[in-house]
């Protein structure tokens, strides 16, 4: 039996290798000052669990996106510890600073790369330290990690990987512990790390499988052929008998199984023992009725995942909606699947029939690290909500990198071309470093990210949708309309694109076209509450009040907590002069969202118009408890007090409004009116002039200033 991997690559000193790994891992630092992009908006920026807006324990009742796990629209992605890390950063800075989140992700990746080196050293032993370094260096620069590192929501993969590696190292400590106390401490720490990894991301539980194979293959030197022979009852391999006779090994494996069962039961109980419901566009292959074609498409996706590891040139933030067309009949891609399984099958057969040596054991560990963490995303046990996701390859890539280096070492030993091997390896590292640097730069903002996807998936409707959304946010309405139309051309049933395009048409006053789009959207997705609300807004603009009210009620039926819908419902009642109903609707809006500025403002204005000034003041003062920096509330209080002749109190409120919004011309103009009535003519003149400086065409200020001059002349 060979004692080590034959190697002709230079040995790197153990004191130097960690520093090289850290330096190489900084290939993703190009995104350190990036924005919140793509999924970051929903998972972090708009997530109340991150912003301290919800009780601490709600984090453990909500999914990754802040939705109740019991809600029918929940994706059931339960990652409370990842959300806790976001919340901790928000608490430390008292705000969301995207640069902080990116820097933490880069630091986590560097830490994981170091731990990857330690895990490789653990698997390969002292004789494989050189191979461990080269594999860890390859892992550090692999571009497939860009989404996990440069996308802030990739924190889930990073934390999961961190605790997965720690759990493997602790499991090794447990195996080699010299006394019972150390065994129990290591065992407890291992269980905590596995649980933490799973609560950062679901795939953390697969570390149990890696630990089991490590115990059997590396520690106890049991090979697949030994197990096959034992099961066939033809041989009774000595090593396998030693495993069976060794109580500690069996106890460890039983412990792993028990931990796995407990964690799976915990995970499924959190989900309510139900699986999430996805749309066909999320994972089209899983909705195919033909079982053979469904399996064929899943296998093609496996090929694509492997290709991204081998050649990470085509990288895209999203692979759904036409990015990967389905195989529905005779297709040349079937041959790609055959070639993939011939190559992969040959590698599997090698692990079975090859002679027993350390290289075989290391290949088995590489395959274990490649396959086990990928299983939850393989659609084998349950359907997932994506076609292909680069982030899920973060841990599996560690297995791939180990296999690549073992293969390179074998080739180098067989053909004896050390200089050529080293040159090829260095070129590969440089190319991957540059690719990672460029790709991480594309994750700095949404415009770069979305446009980069056009080169990879030009037929992906979601890419065009996101380009349109980004263009609309930047004020480029014409481009936004074109891209939404292209998204709908590629996917005529894209309800979200219909809704957003309808909003643009609504803002342009094209109400009939907007109504048509909103109606199509709600016909496609009955529970699309946003589209129902927008439909109600346009119907109200068309004076179709009864239809508008019905649409608002449909929106509220599908989303019980919807303050914006209550606000718009109140506006509808205001137009119909149903004032009590309008007030009730706005009260509901402020109950659901106490910081809803427009609802508070409208209530104060309506009560004032109805001459219910005391109620208006009471509501306004209540509003200030929730929105103390909203100038409009102070402005309206000042107007009410001014009409009541309480000039001094009104002046104070006007000045408070100015301190909150010093660029609002109407505040100065109305303060000028107050001074005018108060007979403080010079002060009134100053306020009118300030208002006209801010808005030269403010007619009320011009007219009042002219009256003021007339009054001054008459006094003289």
Characterise this structure.
It is elongated and about 110 Å long. The chain has helices at residues 17-25, 39-45, 80-93, 98-124, 129-141, 146-150, 155-176, 180-200, 207-219, 224-231, 238-245, 247-270, 291-310, 333-353, 358-371, 396-415, 418-442, 446-454, 461-473, 477-490, 495-507, 511-524, 529-541, 545-558, 563-575, 579-592, 597-609, 613-626, 631-643, 647-660, 665-677, 681-694, 699-715. With 716 residues, the protein is mainly alpha-helical. The protein has 33 helices and no strands. 68% of the residues lie in helices and 0% in strands. Helix 26 packs antiparallel against helix 27 (597-609). The mean pLDDT is 89. The N and C termini lie far apart (116 Å).
Largest beta-sheet details: none
CA-based shape: elongated
Secondary-structure-based class equals mainly alpha
- Calculate the mean pLDDT score and round it: 89
Bin the helical content. 55-70%
Low-confidence stretches: none
Distance between the termini: 116 Å
For the secondary structure, the number of strands is: 0
Percentage of residues in DSSP E strands: under 5%
The helix tally amounts to 33
The rounded Rg comes to 32 Å
